[in-house]
Write a structure and sequence with these properties.
Layout: E1 2-10, H1 15-25, E2 28-38, E3 41-50, H2 57-71, E4 73-79, H3 80-86
Antiparallel strand pairs: 1-3, 1-4, 2-3
Length: about 90
Amino acid sequence: MKLVVTIFGKDQVGIIANVSNILAAKKVNITSVNQNIVDGFFNMIMMAELTDSSVKLAEIQKELKEKGQEMNLEIKVQNQEIFNIMHNV
């Protein structure tokens, strides 16, 4: 399953490391990263692929949401197919 991971919040040390470590532990392969920082705000979109079918999307969403709350960030994970449908005009 292909995933879209979005992260937004005040820039700080460890954002990429924390998110990447969680994804690696769940056997999610990061395939593309686009990030920028504007006026101290961090914004990133990651494209990733879930390689272990025994890991549930809801489990990844929950863990990254909790990490986001801990770091005062908004982190969302969506199935790429659903993301594409939601953003297709």
